[in-house]
Amino acid sequence: MDDNELLAACIRDDRVAQRQLYEKFAARLMAVGMRYSRSRAEAEDILQESFIKIFKNLGNLRERSNIGAWMKKIVINTAINHKRGKLYLFPMVDVEKINKSYDESVALSDYRLDELFEMIRRLPLGCQLIFNLFAIEGFSHKEIAEKLNISEGTSKSQYSRAKMLLQKRIAEDRKNSYEKLR
Predict the structure, then answer these.
(1) Chain Cα centroid distance, residue 122
(2) CB-facing half-sphere around the CA of 4: CA atoms within 13 A
(3) pLDDT attached to residue 19
(4) How far apart are CA 55 and CA 103, in angstroms?
(5) What is the mean pLDDT of each run of 10 residues along the chain (182 residues)?
(6) How far apart are CA 154 and CA 156, in angstroms?
(7) N or C: which end of the chain has fewer CB within 10 A?
(8) Contact (CB, 8 A) for 75 and 33
């Protein structure tokens, strides 16, 4: 069954086809969900909720050739909605109030991708969300501000704070590694 036939069967609520679509995309979409989650269980919740939306709205998809990008967007929006209710618990500082004393030249070649994602996952919630949206997904600060109902300056400051915290963790990690070698 090619992709068009698979999508048509999914739209007809064919459970076998839906399972095939899930199995084809679940791992990639789970990786997206993990970037926005604190735990695997939270990412699984996001993935499950996303697939419910995907199957519900599959008939509205215009460009079937962009199914992967469309599904990724649903996962990102579901993750944002998951986090939106929790954002008020975490302070977000506007850009004018942040001290930008960090080194832009941190090399990441010593780290595996999964290690970097784990560092991102441990960031404060607002920093994690905005770092993922800006640095990984490519949204502008204006788009992020609109999605999260925050100011553009707050988006920029949270991104700056995320970079600063990541650089601090990398420096601490390097220091610890150096001390172990001695």
Answers:
(1) 13
(2) 3
(3) 96
(4) 45
(5) 88 95 96 91 96 94 84 94 65 48 51 84 91 94 92 93 91 75 63
(6) 5
(7) C
(8) yes
What global pTM score does this model have?
Answer: 0.73
Task: Work out the end-to-end distance of the chain between its first and last CA atoms, rounded to an integer number of angstroms.
Answer: 59
In angstroms, the CA 9 to CA 58 distance is 11
- The CA-atom distances, in angstroms, between 91 and each of 68, 71, 87, 154 are 34, 31, 8, 10
Rg (CA), the chain: 19
- Cβ-proximal residues to 65 (8 Å cutoff; 6+ apart), any chain: none
Q: Are the C-beta atoms of 36 and 82 separated by less than 8 Å?
A: yes
3-state secondary structure the chain: CCHHHHHHHHHCCCHHHHHHHHHHHHHHHHHHHHHCCCCHHHHHHHHHHHHHHHHHHHHHCCCHHHHHHHHHHHHHHHHHHHHHHHHCCCCCCCHHHCCCCCCCCCCCCCCCHHHHHHHHHCCCHHHHHHHHHHHHCCCCHHHHHHHHCCCHHHHHHHHHHHHHHHHHHHHHHHHHHHHHHC
Picking from 50, 46, 22, the residue whose alpha carbon sits closest to that of residue 33 is 46
Structure tokens at 174: 């390097």
